[in-house]
């Protein structure tokens, strides 16, 4: 694995940018450059700051530099029979750990295996004053000071440069098998929930409009037993990595914008276009031509929320609007980390 | 800590009158006897009479009170059940003690979505009790769960015996309603599990009432485990027992709970609730496994083998609930049993990497000898969260100070071993100084900036959690000038 510690250079770059008041666009692997609102600022390349700082398999903890490639981390963990249970997507081999953390996305097992927010134990950050601050730590339980590291998950780099990340890892399931069942989409939410409550080792439950698809991961005996109980057709578990990384034909289709909707399980959006639903009915991918306001309104009607994932008018909003006092507080929190507004300005909202 | 005269002037008659108008008649406590009930939390060493106590019953009342305090510049200390162990709810002499325990009317279970909407004053256990008819429960289970409130659990990011497998409070709460100091009502997070923008919900967990007042939350519920087994293992040496803990984690088994008691604690418990253990037992380990019947059996075989390799010479395995309850009663009896042995006890709380547990316990024993005090250990070993209990007699000249400096030394040890000065009890008033050992000036300034983003005038729980940089400099000074350090004769580790 390639190693390089660029923390000195990066802190100097940030301090310099702070002096000059030049905003920065943080660039990791560049595999999610289209996510969020466009940022017009000087790029700061972070992928070179990489390598594992400390990995203690017996402790189930790994500490690594932000630029480490997710695929490299996966290989390192796999060699010890471990993995990152939240299994974040990699939209290319260049996807970095810090980029994954900043995007806050999780793989198909999210409802059953947790998200990055549950796995992160600490983050070392360059804040907007050019200071290196270590928030959280490397231990399982730590309530000293504010948990300033958790908001890094999903902040899209707007709070600072993630230099180092400390993550909780998990034993890798010994067996992983995939099934396709001839059941309608309406059955997904209820069935998946019932199977999970009955103790089936679910690691994914989706419906592509044709068939209900399940990923099972756990001990060999538990997975075999589940496969025997459920019936259906066994398929290549590679389906699930392809879904995670959006390599399925559904995602390749150019044209209409792609939306990500989080909905109460069982809800189905009444919008033009077509959808693929996963997370046991909680996360929808929806491709269709509808004005942003209509999509936000439909998600809200169903008690959910929408974000524009890819495509569409780059000037249109990406995330559903926030209540003004909440937006104001988020701005003040951003300023607490980044008083000059250096990092990825406007990536969530124009005002943030 | 004495209040500035300026602060004193803020709680004027006019303010008190306006405060009374925000509350139901019995909601305002002015008389000294009434206020006395709030002078401390479960850390009884720290006491202070609150200026006034307010007991709202509705969210709108909390909003009005905070708005008023903001207008008059009066400090506010939130309080749930007051079971905190670090003085987090220690009142402000010239401020409002905001008792939130009456915000307990809301407790709605959505069994299909496995969610509950819960008022901040609802007791932790009440959530699981309400969920039980649906085969569900709320996973975070601090030992104080009969009494402690959800608001207090969020403010301390409470853990419990089962957080090793099921996470802390922060991992089980999906949304919260926060009232900011200017009385604004905000929804943080979402029952969908994610919300747009910055994750403020995560940030208010463990924020000890410094960022806002939590009045309500949505929590996730889990299906009750289908099968459960409790193992009990006795070891001749505590270090072997600690090594067994590291080995179980390393083997990839995630027990639902993994608790350790050292020899002193075992002897104390045995004296109270005779179990008939061999009295030369050096340490006890309790391991709870849950899941499907097949999983539990497989894990239990794995763990039993590991325990034996690490020298366990006494093994029990409980499959029926009554037997399991008997084993757990031993752990639950530990603190009371220890407390019987001395006029005073100080319960410490630190966190270390699990592979360092054996070394840490050895160092604590050496420290205790050096300070001439007895220390008992009974703690959440599986996540490296230690709870050394220091025994002392405050009637003896200097013993309290000695116990406190031993406590500080143990916390420094945790930091040196790569851990934290608090795993679950919080910083509160007690560990403000120890924060200087764990964080740099830039990090403390970062905490101050976060605080100021929510509460620019510092009215919410002032003086807790974050030390001033001056205070740290002063303590650093103390370090250098050995002559002024209490008990310079004692070795420092
Ligand atoms: C016997 C015993 C066993 C314990 N076991 C455990 C354990 O296993 N695990 C564990 O983590 N802790 C444990 N504790 C500590 C304590 O019970 C927890 O910290 C608990 O979460 C405190 O809840 P509370 O309602 O009593 O809060 P309080 O003690 O009243 O308050 C704690 C802090 O939270 C703030 N606060 C309270 N309510 C709110 C609110 N609604 N909004 C904003 N801030 C608020 C207060 O200002 C204070 O800083 C134990 C305590 C005792 C006495």
Automatic annotation (TrEMBL), chain A:
Q: Which UniProt keywords apply?
A: FAD, Flavoprotein, Oxidoreductase
Query: What is the name of this protein?
Result: Glycolate oxidase
All copies of the FAD-binding PCMH-type domain together span 1-172
Report if keyword Acyltransferase is assigned.
no
Q: Which GO terms describe its molecular function?
A: FAD binding; oxidoreductase activity
Q: Which cofactor does it need?
A: FAD
Q: Which gene encodes it?
A: glcE
Q: Which parts of the chain are coiled coil? A: none
* InterPro entries in alphabetical order: FAD-bd_oxidored_4_C (IPR004113), FAD-bd_PCMH (IPR016166), FAD-bd_PCMH-like_sf (IPR036318), FAD-bd_PCMH_sub2 (IPR016169), FAD-linked_Oxase-like_C (IPR016164), Oxid_FAD_bind_N (IPR006094)
Q: Which SUPFAM superfamilies match?
A: FAD-binding/transporter-associated domain-like, FAD-linked oxidases, C-terminal domain
The residues that cross the membrane are: none
Automatic annotation (TrEMBL), chain B:
Asked if Flavoprotein is a keyword of the record, the answer is yes
- Native organism is Bisbaumannia pacifica
What is the protein named?
Answer: Glycolate oxidase subunit GlcD
Coiled coil stretches, renumbered:
none
Q: Which InterPro entries is this protein grouped with?
A: FAD-bd_oxidored_4_C, FAD-bd_PCMH, FAD-bd_PCMH-like_sf, FAD-bd_PCMH_sub2, FAD-linked_Oxase-like_C, FAD-linked_OxidoTrans_Type4, Oxid_FAD_bind_N, Vanillyl_alc_oxidase_C-sub2
Q: Which residues belong to any copy of the FAD-binding PCMH-type domain?
A: 46-224
**Which cofactors is this protein said to need?**
FAD
Instruction: Cite the entry's keywords alphabetically.
Output: FAD, Flavoprotein, Oxidoreductase
Could you name the domain of life of the organism this protein comes from?
Bacteria
Q: Which GO terms describe its molecular function?
A: FAD binding; oxidoreductase activity
């Amino acid at each position: 694995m390639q190693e390089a510690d660029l923390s000195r250079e990066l802190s100097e770059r940030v301090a310099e940018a702070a002096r000059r008041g030049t905003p920065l666009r943080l660039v990791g692997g560049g595999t999610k450059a289209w996510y969020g609102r466009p940022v017009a600022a000087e790029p700061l390349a972070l992928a070179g700051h990489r390598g594992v700082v400390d990995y203690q398999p017996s402790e189930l903890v790994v500490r690594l530099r932000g630029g480490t490639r997710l695929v490299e981390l996966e290989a390192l963990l796999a060699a010890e029979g471990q993995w990152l249970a939240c299994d974040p997507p990699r939209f290319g081999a260049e996807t970095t750990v810090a980029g994954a953390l900043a995007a806050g996305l999780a793989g198909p097992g999210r409802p059953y295996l947790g998200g990055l927010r549950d796995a992160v134990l600490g983050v070392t950050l360059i804040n907007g004053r050019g200071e290196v601050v270590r928030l959280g730590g490397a231990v399982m339980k730590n309530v000293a000071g504010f948990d300033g590291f958790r908001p890094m998950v999903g902040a899209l780099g707007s709070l600072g440069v993630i230099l180092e990340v400390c993550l909780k890892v998990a034993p890798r399931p010994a067996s992983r098998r995939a099934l396709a069942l001839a059941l309608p989409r309406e059955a997904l939410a209820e069935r998946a929930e019932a199977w999970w409550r009955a103790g089936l080792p679910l690691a994914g439950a989706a419906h592509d409009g044709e068939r209900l698809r399940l990923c099972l991961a756990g001990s060999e005996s538990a997975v075999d037993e589940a496969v025997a109980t459920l019936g259906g057709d066994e398929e290549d578990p590679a389906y699930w990595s392809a879904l995670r990384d959006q390599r399925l034909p559904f995602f390749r289709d150019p044209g209409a914008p792609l939306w990500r909707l989080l909905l109460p399980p069982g809800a189905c959006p009444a919008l033009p276009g077509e959808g693929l639903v996963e997370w046991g009915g909680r996360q929808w991918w929806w491709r269709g031509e509808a004005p942003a306001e209509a999509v936000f309104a439909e998600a809200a009607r169903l008690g959910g929320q929408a974000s524009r994932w890819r495509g569409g008018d780059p000037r249109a909003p990406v995330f559903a609007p926030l209540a003004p006092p909440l937006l104001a507080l988020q701005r003040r929190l951003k300023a607490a980390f980044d008083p000059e507004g250096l990092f990825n300005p406007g990536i969530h909202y124009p005002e943030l | 800590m004495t209040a500035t005269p300026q602060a004193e002037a803020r709680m004027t008659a006019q303010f008190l009158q306006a405060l009374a108008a925000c509350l139901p008649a019995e909601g305002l406590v002015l008389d000294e006897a009434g206020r006395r009930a709030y002078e401390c939390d479960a850390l009884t060493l720290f006491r202070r009479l609150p200026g006034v106590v307010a007991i709202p019953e509705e969210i709108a009342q909390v909003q009005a009170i905070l708005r008023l305090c903001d207008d008059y510049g009066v400090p506010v200390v939130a309080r749930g059940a007051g079971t905190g162990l670090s003085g987090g709810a220690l009142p402000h002499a010239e401020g409002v003690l905001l008792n939130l325990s009456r915000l307990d009317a809301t407790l709605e279970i959505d069994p299909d979505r496995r969610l509950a909407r819960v008022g901040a004053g609802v007791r932790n256990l009440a959530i699981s009790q309400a969920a039980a008819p649906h085969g569900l429960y709320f996973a975070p289970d601090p030992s104080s769960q009969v009494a402690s409130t959800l608001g207090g659990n969020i403010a301390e990011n409470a853990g419990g015996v089962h957080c090793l497998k099921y996470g802390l409070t922060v991992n089980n709460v999906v949304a919260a309603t926060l009232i900011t100091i200017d009385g604004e009502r905000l929804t943080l997070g979402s029952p969908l599990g994610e919300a747009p923008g910055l994750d403020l919900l995560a940030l208010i967990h463990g924020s000890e009432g410094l960022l806002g007042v939590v009045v309500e939350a949505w929590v996730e519920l889990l299906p009750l485990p289908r099968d459960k087994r409790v193992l009990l293992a006795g070891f001749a040496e505590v270090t072997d027992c600690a090594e067994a803990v590291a080995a179980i984690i390393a083997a990839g088994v995630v027990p639902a709970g993994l608790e350790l008691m050292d020899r002193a604690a075992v002897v104390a418990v045995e004296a109270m609730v005779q179990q008939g253990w061999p009295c030369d037992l050096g340490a006890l380990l309790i391991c709870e496994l849950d899941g499907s019947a097949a999983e539990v059996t497989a894990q239990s075989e794995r763990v039993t083998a590991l325990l034996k390799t690490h020298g366990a010479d006494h093994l029990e395995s409980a499959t029926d609930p009554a037997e399991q309850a008997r084993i757990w009663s031993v752990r639950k009896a530990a603190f009371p049993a220890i407390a019987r042995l001395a006029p005073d006890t100080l319960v410490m709380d630190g966190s270390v990497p699990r592979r360092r547990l054996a070394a840490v316990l050895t160092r604590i024993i050496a420290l205790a000898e050096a300070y001439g005090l007895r220390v008992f250990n009974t703690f959440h070993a599986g996540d490296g969260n230690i709870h050394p209990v220091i025994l002392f007699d405050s009637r003896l000249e200097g013993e309290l100070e000695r116990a406190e400096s031993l406590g500080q030394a143990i916390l420094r040890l945790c930091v040196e071993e790569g851990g934290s000065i608090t795993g679950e009890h919080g910083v509160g008033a007690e560990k403000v100084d120890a924060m200087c050992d764990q964080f740099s000036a830039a990090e403390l300034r970062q905490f101050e900036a976060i605080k100021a983003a929510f509460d620019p005038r510092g009215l919410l729980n002032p003086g807790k959690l974050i030390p001033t940089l001056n205070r740290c400099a002063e303590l650093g000074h103390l370090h250098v000038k050995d002559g002024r350090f209490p008990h310079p004769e004692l070795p420092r580790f």
